[in-house]
Amino acid sequence: MSDDTRCPRPTYLDGLNDAQRDAALHGSGNAAGPLLIIAGAGSGKTNTLAHRVAHLLAEGVDPAQILLLTFSRRAADEMIRRVQRIAAKVSPRHARLAQGGFPWAGTFHSVGARLLREFAGRIGLDPAFTIHDREDSADLMNLVRHELGLSSKTRRFPMKGTCLAIYSAAVNTQNRLTDVLQTSFPWCAEWEADLRQLFRAYVEAKQAQQVLDYDDLLLYWAQMVSEPDLAREVGERFRHVLVDEFQDTNHLQSALLRAMKPDGRGLTVVGDDAQSIYSFRGATVRNILDFPDQFDPPARRVTLDRNYRSTPSILAAANAVIAQARERFSKDLWSERPAGEKPVLVSVRDEADQAAYVVEQVLARREAGLRLKAQAVLFRAAHHSVRLEIELTRRNIPFVKFGGLKFLEAAHVKDVLAVLRWSQNLRDRVAGFRAIQLLPGIGPKTAGRILDNLQAAAPGCALLPEQPVPEGVRDGWVAFATLVEGLGGDTWPQPVERLAQWYEPQLERLFDDAHVRQADIQQLARIAATYPSRERFLTELTLDPPDATSDESGAPLRDEDYLILSTIHSAKGREWSAVSLLNTVDGCLPSDLATGSEREIEEEMRLLYVAMTRAKDHLDLIVPQRFYITGQSGMGDRHVYASRTRFIPNRLCGHFSSRSWPSIEPAVTGDAQSRERAIDLAARMRDMWN
DNA sequence: GCTAAGTCTTTTTTT
DNA sequence: AAGACTTAGC
Fold first, then answer.
1. Which strand B nucleotides have any atom less than 7 A from protein CB atoms?
2. Whole-structure pTM value
């Protein structure tokens, strides 16, 4: 018997290298033990996982038995597309099977929502529960906070966002409140007793209104599978559970995986500890570092360290940066591509020059034949790109921005959605509270009273127009109440259009830039029309919000060429031929707000690593020398000097080339001047801390 | 009881 | 630069 027949290698696996194939084929047959794939940046992770899924299909696993957990909806779609392409190579039957889709592919949160709706009856949950996004949750927290009288304490009580952050951290890390306060929010520790009371009331409020927040989607899921019978039932339904971006899962998520797959059989997780960048959301590198030894026998580990993306020069620099990290699965990425050019450290005077430099480079590369879409500008915080956005708009260069303020978070969009949500569920206090106050002359007091009345009354909304409101508002209120009552009767998407019509005068009254916002409302109506019903629209929008904001520059058409602007977090998993990183400066990266502990600083270092490893061929790290202080009157000249990020100390400079822009005139006075400035600089740096 | 104006705090990354 | 809270005025 020849080797070939004993180990037949299906041709659809031909494109993989040895390690990738090893991962794809792991545990062929039924006895697939737990598998950890450490997949470095650009090592073909998605491809490997997609092959593994296709291989499972080839072995006869039904797509409905595969639970595929990814970080974002977009990642899930991409994965499924690839699986379908590979399955087409296996056989026509498998192609059809894959074409039918994977019902259980998505984010932890969206899969959680689906499971909970299905099992709602058995865990005492209303199957029609609504889902609050972060801002809704913060609003509810605020409501409760006021009701408990915590806002009028003599010493200032933490604000709604902080309260929610503390609550969320406690839930996601599964730590005690005391510990969470101690480690992450020491300045709020004095409020522990009040916070505990607040959180208890917050949970009760959610339950009274049949509302779940993001954390609940995981928490209820975890609670559900902590019941042995349900755990077995859910665990058996999914013969295979595959988790992407495992380094960014939190304690709660790993607990829930373990509950479903106690012995790890059928469990595959993929990740890269060097790219863990979500600890602010409770994610912990420990999940991936400790994964193998959770099981007996321990999980098999496969490392993918061959990089197919970047030039060796870029990889060498990125490896040198991440080598400074303290704890990780050691791996250095390698590549067989030609060396390429070193990453460039570009020194510019200020943010205005930074924007000008980026535009010049982007245009030059486009002249050289590189499409805008193959280029990206990355940054730590969404507002870092403001200058550049202005410059791009002025120069008529189309761009799309990822990350930062979402379309759905804009006040006017939230207003319309609040009315729509309230019309669906009049007991939704958060939506109602916001919706009712849209009427001029009605504030928190009247709104609260109306909601109390509705709560007390029997379900059904016949009495809405009769609610007590101040005299001058009567007519407006009756018109509004009638509209809200009528929305349920219209066929979708009529309600959104009627609502938009009603909202227009409010828009004029509330905002100076009403016409810009009006465009967003129309955009919302267009998005709404792509959903089959009001219910589906409202529930699915919270979990899968549209990606990019429709900017004033006008959203570029799909087939048009445009430049990508993105926060580093939103750039996860993506790649471009040329990447420019803005503000590679201490204070921005690491962010001033994240230098509290060594753990936070390490995460900022990984952030730089993630940014660098997005680049295939060209990488510019831009270092503005000074920053103007915002908030000063008129054309103030107050500024601070910044220095290159601490993650690229001098001893690593050999991995980079350096340049200044605009190029320094070789004038005799140049040196003297710059030295004088340097002395000045040191004094100012000290002054910053006075 | 509502709104508008003024003061003080917080300020990132996202499902 | 925005949001939360307080205070003054209608």
1. 1-3, 9-15
2. 0.86
